Here is the input.
Amino acid sequence: MDFLNAIVAFANFVLVPGTAYGAQLALGALGVTLIYGILRFSNFAHGDTMAIGTMFVILITWGFQSAGISFGPLPTALLALPFGIVLTGLVLVGTDKVVYQFYRQRKVKPVVLVMVSLGVMFIMNGLTRFIIGPDDQRFADGERFIISARNFKEMTGLDEGLAIKTTQGITVITAVIVVAILFWFLNKTRTGKSMRAYSDNEDLALLSGINPERVVLYTWLIVAALATVAGTLYGLDKSFKPFTYFQLLLPIFAAAIVGGLGNPLGAIAGGFVIAFSEVTVTYAFKKVATYVMPEALAPDGLLQLMSTDYKFAVSFSILIIVLLFKPTGLLKGQSV
Amino acid sequence: MTRRDALLFVFVGFLILGTGFTQSWNSALLILNMGLISAIMALGVNLQWGLAGLFNVGVMGFVALGGLATVITAMPANAEEWSVGGVRVLAGLLLGAGTVIAAIMVYQKLPAGRPRTLTMLATLIGGFFLFRFVFDGGVEAVEAVNPAATGYLGGLGLPILLAWPVGGLLAAGAAWIIGKTALGLRSDYLAIATLGIAEIIIAVMKNEDWLSRGVKNVVGLPRPTGVPYEIDLQEDAGFVETAAGLGLDPATASTLYVKLVYAALFAVVLIILLWLAQKALSSPWGRMMRAIRDNEVAAEAMGKDVTARHLQVFILGSAICGIAGAMMTTLDGQLTPTGYQPLRYTFLIWVMVIVGGSGNNFGSVLGGFLIWFLWVQVEPMGLALMQLITAGMSDGFWLKQHLIDSAAHMRLLTMGVVLLLVLRFSPRGLIPER
Here is the structure.
């Protein structure tokens, strides 16, 4: 019986990675939910928007690195992030002008916009692969750990180590800052309020003199920032590969729907729900169990509910359960 | 079909013939065969989108289930694997299914409230562990048998042609599950749910070695009766003589002959399905579906059960995709789960339907052939274009190498641009709905 070690092992393999992944998903889901609330369609290009944003950040990071600019113990990518956001914002606003605006003015059915976003996804995916290639790219530099497993063991004298990677720390801190700014913007500023008004009731908002094109412009800029930050944090924490970002679409949508599409708070809650379920279900609890259980009962198997290959099945099952029992999401979303 | 439509078909025919004259007849027949299969997939998607306005983003999953059907139906059963763990695997699967059914019955029979929730959770959790206990042991035993050559249960050893309808049935089953949950809600939800089920089906096929050998692939699927093997043809004196009479060497002639037989088989399936789809389109049922698509509220007011009709057409369309998937795996002669890519098997089919003309069956067939032709031909064209662009650059210049290496990704870009251009400037497609 060794609860302390069990808790540390659990924190090391489930809590810490789950929190970081949850923050990344939450940022992604916020982007999806904002587009859904204001532009009223599910943006299938969001995963590839994240990829293209991250690609800009990576390219600028490489530029900085070869110019000898670094950010001390922190990853250089953080310095490149603002530039990446600006570039992604330009891409998204350009896409809106060239592609989406036409359909918005026609007031087409949402499903047509979904299909259009599919075309945009193709193009963004192609561009990303064209420019940076389809392979894995690692661009994290600086200090690797805030606490490494060995230091933790030396400090506490426990058998289990608790490692917190710098990227995980940065992920959580950045996510908190970004979300705080976003909610301040939506709740306190004039533009943010007009965005919420437009999302609540389009006709009423138009009637009270809100300029829809301005609202849409700001939405795309915010989405660009969210997507780039989410993509970069994910890339720093794991690695950047265009196809992985396309696959992130499923957990991100699941997070947004679980929380209630169109509801920003829900997107954050949904992100963590999905991330923790995914990590918990696919983690092999053998190590934790051997500490907690008496020796005679030590488990033979890995105590893994599902192999990691099925992590998409987790977000999918949660999605299905929510659709079956609570189609508007945990926190009330816009749609049924 | 109007004259313009017929001309479009003739044009695509010339494109494929042109490939035969300028490149090789082998590649022309390859394009034709895959074009036939693509046309069938496009028919299925058109049934869902064109007739009912349902957005299915999981075509890949249904196609893959068709592929799985060929293994389950046509491969011989592996006796040793069956004896060591086959029964246990099946029992595990039945237990899993029983758990889900029991949970559903609890949900439906008991009155709402905390006892119901708790009973249901207990059933699910208990059932899950029971399932894993029975199932895992069986799987381990099965996969341990000669993993380099077999290590899976195999199939029923039936003729592979039977796998085509079986593929349709498997896909229909998956579609029923998805449709039951996601239909009747917002249209976007179906899209996301189908996207998810496709990923999961592929994950299952990649990881469940006892079922489909996973990433080790199942090779050597039998051919349909009537399709000869090249090697037998080359040894057939009569065939060699006829080939010589046509001025062909026996090796080329035999591959061409086999592809022609396949093309005939596929064409028969396509014509039957096209005929059925046309009948459905012009029947009272088809008119009802279009009425529902154009105004759900009005159709509901007229007493139509919109969700049930959507479920029906969604299952039918997915079944057609499953049939096409089984045909494709039959043509390949092997099941390679890693080969299923969403861009190729979901989104490409969508481009076919949109470009061909959603709501028109002939349009989908045309789109299937045309877009498949472009998909095959864009890559060499992209490479040629890149070589033209980089011709002025000196060898070894990094940009030149990068551009030439990246030519392979031109396909995605081109397909995206084609889709957007058609949606914008000709949303009704090449052969519009009438």
